[in-house]
Amino acid sequence: MTLTDETATPVHHEDLTALGARLRTALDGPYAAERSVGRATFPADDLLRDPGLDVAQSREWTLGRLRELERHGFGHAGVPDGPNSVSDPLTAVMAFEMLAHGDLSVTIKSGVQFGLFGGAVTNLGTEWHHATFLPGITDLSLLGGFAMTELGHGSDVASLETTITYDPETDEFDVHSPTPGATKAYIGNAAKDGTMAAVFGQLWVGGTCHGVHVVLVPLRDDDGNDLPGITTGDQGHKGGLLGVDNGTIRFDHVRVERRMLLDRFGGVGDDGAYSSPIENANRRFFTMLGTLVRGRVCVGGGAGITARRALSIATRYALRRRQFPAAGRPGGVLLLDYLVHQRRLLPRIARSYALGFAQNELIEALVHVQGPGDSTETEQRELETRAAGLKAMTTWFANETVQEAREACGGSGYLSENQLTEMRRDVDIFATFEGDNTVLLQSVTKALLTDFKREWSELDRSGVMQATAKVAGETVVEATSANLVLDRLASAVRRKPEETTLTDRRWHALMFEERARHSLESLARRMRAASTASGDSFEAFNALGEHVQFAAKAHLERLALQAFIDGIRGCEDPEARGVLEDLCSLYALSSIHDQRAWFLEHNRISSSRSKAIGQQLDDLCRRLRPHALGLVEGMGIPESWLGAAILRD
Amino acid sequence: MTLTDETATPVHHEDLTALGARLRTALDGPYAAERSVGRATFPADDLLRDPGLDVAQSREWTLGRLRELERHGFGHAGVPDGPNSVSDPLTAVMAFEMLAHGDLSVTIKSGVQFGLFGGAVTNLGTEWHHATFLPGITDLSLLGGFAMTELGHGSDVASLETTITYDPETDEFDVHSPTPGATKAYIGNAAKDGTMAAVFGQLWVGGTCHGVHVVLVPLRDDDGNDLPGITTGDQGHKGGLLGVDNGTIRFDHVRVERRMLLDRFGGVGDDGAYSSPIENANRRFFTMLGTLVRGRVCVGGGAGITARRALSIATRYALRRRQFPAAGRPGGVLLLDYLVHQRRLLPRIARSYALGFAQNELIEALVHVQGPGDSTETEQRELETRAAGLKAMTTWFANETVQEAREACGGSGYLSENQLTEMRRDVDIFATFEGDNTVLLQSVTKALLTDFKREWSELDRSGVMQATAKVAGETVVEATSANLVLDRLASAVRRKPEETTLTDRRWHALMFEERARHSLESLARRMRAASTASGDSFEAFNALGEHVQFAAKAHLERLALQAFIDGIRGCEDPEARGVLEDLCSLYALSSIHDQRAWFLEHNRISSSRSKAIGQQLDDLCRRLRPHALGLVEGMGIPESWLGAAILRD
Predict the structure, then answer these.
(1) Which of A310, A333, A387, A636 could form a disulfide with A402 if both were Cys (CB 3.0 to 4.6 A apart)?
(2) Are the CB atoms for A191 and A245 separated by under 8 Å?
């Protein structure tokens, strides 16, 4: 996507309501210009795949579409096309988002080729790799796979079994799958199109294992046959994403030249000895994995767009479709006039905005860390944590939302021509790939606790821990994952929280802060107890599983509320701002309502206040109902791109 | 299915653990013999459809499989094959269940042909229809559609627009689609295979409309061409159920003989005048729709089996698959040893049992009402309410559970060869067809309130209402949807509920009773207020939407707990009984835990007790973990039928 290309002709024009246009600008936020250009120039003629295509046809269509996008300049998505070009994270993320407006197989195939395979070469390789391979990667003459996952090891990358063994005799690496579990699996581009793969394995040099590294291995000859020692397998029909050719790869002592190792963070020199700029093996491992953060930012963003497409279809349909006649409505009640229907859709629209604002801030952090300027290791780690967490939250949200939208459209929602079932099939796996969501949330909490522990021990040294554990805990959490705006809002009502109204943002801030803070603090206490408990230490930590998930979610909800508040500040139009304030209340109150049991259990709300929240949600839905069309337009999916037959006249 | 056919050879044998066998007997309950014969004789060689088949191939395979089942005696599923045979509800339900162990397109195509089309002819037709059409329906030489739903009218059957107008000149009916919205839609067998349809429309005789009736209309000639005046359409690719040929039908003044009207509840005599055994048009309408109850019983049962298949796959996989290494577990932790994973699967297994026991009682009620003996109108109405409610609960549960199972199997869950994504696609629409779930729950609450109102006014007359409204309310609900066992259990601890343990069945009973009773009672009060409120009466009732859904669910949870308790009583083996007691506690506590906010808000539990529930759920999961295989076997799906590649060695 060439955002600055002045020759690009807008191919798309939409008529929006005034409110819709303003909300869209607000939600597009810091990237309003880029997104606007993207929508105006994206080639949308062949956006959606015919659901009737079989696996072979879907793959052919998808690859063809990718090549067509490349011809239109929407190709390599921020991947540099040679050693003198730079990797541009913003273009990459914007391109992925735009692709997610259409068929998701195209989005993911693009992600595999440019984001993962291209990203590995760019970020883990050095100059020779860039010069040799990036031109082919970006013009699609070299299609590649990202061979990390193994049958026996999904989330547990450190335990990968594939070996990359340096042979000083021939100055080559020997790449090998020693066990059935070492078989690479679910690898995009492996079943058919890929002629090379970036293969993750344990690097052995002179009898010493240096941990996981990545080597480029050619897979197929020009006729598409497996090269000697390579056995690829086709994983065939999947739940969705039929256009992506996922497959397996096994290596039987495959030999590659020494320079095929992507050696930015460690490699073998001319002397046959291993060296690395990062001494500590564990830190090296996480540094290498850390470069993958862009993929998670993209996947979360793409899932967010998918949820918006589904909500756009269901809401626009509910503005047309009439049901049972009722008093004063002889022609039938418009679906969206049923409060139950409003409660199905409007809180999800509110959450879409919240996650969208949070995604904007995540992209800003990504651009900061991966851009040309300097960034600290702390900022990098915070980016990884936030990307992991938002990816989990948004992909789950997308799955549930597409399903809700499907049911909200009744039987017509089930016809493939209305797109919802196809989206649902494709987005399903987003909850698993680029990190299983449950495991990702564990990593979020782990990172929060690491901060916690570090600062705690620093405080201990400085003597502040003379205060009670509780106060210390609060101080610590504030200091680490501090959010000054929320905290200031919360402070103003902390002493008499129940004297606020239910739509008082200060009270929302207080509740979100309390949930995040207290759940992490109490988890830290339980962790400490578990670590000193006698008996089976696995079981001691195992018992904290639900608490770990809760603390991560509470942290991420807080991030989203903060981002929503920041987003409203950026909106200058008073009408749009008023609507966004109501929408933010709907988001915040829905989040509190969903977990009001926790707030009650921890004496953060009274039972009468808790009961009143449902009523307040109804009121907010009624207030937002007249703005439904504008809210949908604000989510930014052009109506003509939705491709749903039920929306055609 | 010929349950008594002594020539049937068992084609299937399973090795079960002792516990598994006993749990299976318990869960099979009153139908243990029928289900056991079903499993032993069901032709399982060609159980699952190749997911790679396209729409045309899927339809062909599905019809072929239906004919094969017919040849094996698993055909017409309780539909009588002529006027001297009787309709057998038990055989119908058992056959549907057994079919749901395999490809769901076959299940639904069978349901369309035998349950809906055959059921309409059987239940709404009279002797000539039975003699003329049932032989062809049962031997599959006459394939038919059930043309109720219209594009403009799904749940709102009373507003159907299709007209069936008697023409005395020719002594024929004129069947017509007056508007685009009158087009029949989503009709199984309409796109391709059906040569006739049972068409729902407004019956007009001599200028008077007698409401919805059903007429048989031939659709296609022997070459498959639409007959004059008929326009069928193919709805093509759907979210799932690709083997069912759903389509649209339009009628342009199609003429059929007078006797083609299914006239059991109303028709036109030789004199050209309308007559009906049921005077009241509204009652006639509900009597006709009431005959459809069997379909809802079947669909709920089929969804329950689907959930069990998914849980069987995910749990058996979690008993094989290892993840990260941990202290004392160098080879990696078995997935099912993670408490988080147990919490994903075991409460769902518990709920599967609860819904299974409830389904058994529902089948008993169906057999009672539709069997040869007498039944009252109250019993019929209760059956309809229960069938509607359990259908909604079980189909939603199936959808969520298959998805949870998919995610619990990670990336391999997404491969079609592991069946979960295919099940998910197929079972999705179960939440919408045979009644949209949200609308069905409204009907449940409406029925409960009708009872409530009737008894309330009776009490008013007898003066009992002199007592406080609250007490009267309680009395009423007890009297109507009384459950003596639960009530007796609850009474024993009503005065000091918090002195019980969290696994005390009496306390569970009390909580379930209180939730159902109080939510209905308070809804009745709000309904009364709404009915006398000034202003927009639609909006007054509209505001109660969430409350209506809650009250229905609370009622159905109570039914399920009761059924579970009844089911345990029927289990004589002490070990199995002990496991079932724990499983019932897990079900009951999960239900309370999910809605503990309600219990807290209504002062039914203290916050410290509420917080303890999570811990208790963990403990129950740990206690049940060693019995996981037996629990899965008890759910009754033979392992070899699961067809999941990940379970093969």
Answers:
(1) A310
(2) yes
Name the residue type at position B192.
K
- Tell me how far apart the alpha carbons of residues A570 and A566 are, in angstroms, rounded to a whole number: 7
Determine whether the interchain pair B340/A546 forms a contact, defined as Cβ–Cβ distance below 8 Å. yes
Per the CB < 8 A criterion, the answer to whether A383 and A369 are in contact is yes
* Nearest alpha carbon to residue A103 among A57, A139, A140: A57
ipTM of model: 0.91
Token duo for residue A471: 């106060």
Kind of pairing, strands B196-205 and B163-167?
Answer: parallel
The alpha carbon of residue A45 and the mean position of all alpha carbons in its chain are separated, in whole angstroms, by: 27
DSSP assignment letter at A170: T
Q: Do A421 and B601 touch (CB under 8 A)?
A: no
Residue B157, classified by CB atoms within 10 Å of its CB into exposed (0-12), middle (13-18) or buried (19+), is middle
**For B436-494, what is each residue's pLDDT tens digit?**
999 999 999 999 988 666 655 544 443 333 332 333 334 334 334 456 888 899 999 99
Residues 6+ apart with CB under 8 A from A106: A49, A62, A65, A66, A69, A99, A243
* pLDDT tens, position by position, A151-180: 987 778 888 999 999 999 999 999 999 999
CA distance A257 to chain B (A): 32
Does the beta-carbon distance from A432 to B407 stay under 8 Å? yes
Domain ranges of chain B: 42-280, 293-641
Say if the Cβ atoms of A411 and B186 lie within 8 Å.
yes
Q: Pick from A365, A396, A306, A404: which is nearest to A559 by CA?
A: A365
Distance to chain A for B324, nearest Cα, Å: 6
Q: Which of B414, B543, B546 sits opposite A429 (nearest CB)?
A: B414
Q: Which residue has the higher pLDDT, A352 or A461?
A: A352
Tokens standing for residue B233: 């359409």
Mark yes or no for CB contact B338/A431 under 8 Å: no
Report the pLDDT value the prediction gives residue A618, as an integer from 0 to 100. Answer: 96
SS3 at position A372: coil
Q: Is the CB of residue A405 less than 8 Å from the CB of residue A413?
A: yes
Q: Which CATH superfamily is domain B293-641 in?
A: Butyryl-CoA Dehydrogenase, subunit A, domain 3 (1.20.140.10)
Which of B52, B54, B538 is opposite residue A328, by nearest beta carbon?
A: B538
Check if the beta carbon of residue B402 is closer than 8 Å to that of residue B310. yes
* pTM, two decimal places: 0.93
Q: Which helix (H) or strand (E) holds B251?
A: strand B247-251
SS (H, E, C) A582-594: HHHHHHHHHHHHH
Q: How many degrees, rounded to 5, is the angle at CA B78 between CA B76 and CA B79?
A: 65
Assign domain A42-280 to its CATH superfamily. Answer: Butyryl-CoA Dehydrogenase, subunit A, domain 2 (2.40.110.10)
The secondary structure of A51-66 as a DSSP string is: TT--HHHHHHHHHHHH
Of A340, A414, A610, the CB nearest to B597: A610
Q: Which chain A residues have a beta carbon less than 8 Å from that of B324?
A: 155-156, 159
* Strand ranges (E), B64-116: none
Secondary element (H or E) of residue B202 = strand B196-205
Q: Which amino acid is at A356?
A: G
Tokens of B189: 């067998």
pLDDT-based confidence at B519, cuts 50/70/90? very high
**Chain B residues touching A236 at Cβ < 8 A:** 52, 415-417
The Cα–Cα gap between A99 and A93 comes to: 10
Min Cα distance B432 → chain A (Å) is 6
d(CA A406, CA A409): 5
Q: For A409-482, where are the alpha helices, taking DSSP H only?
A: 420-428, 437-462, 469-480
CB contact under 8 A, B601 and A610: yes
Are A185 and B339 a contacting pair at CB < 8 A? no
For A438, nearest residue in chain B (alpha carbons): B340
Helix (H, G, I), strand (E, B) or coil at B205: strand
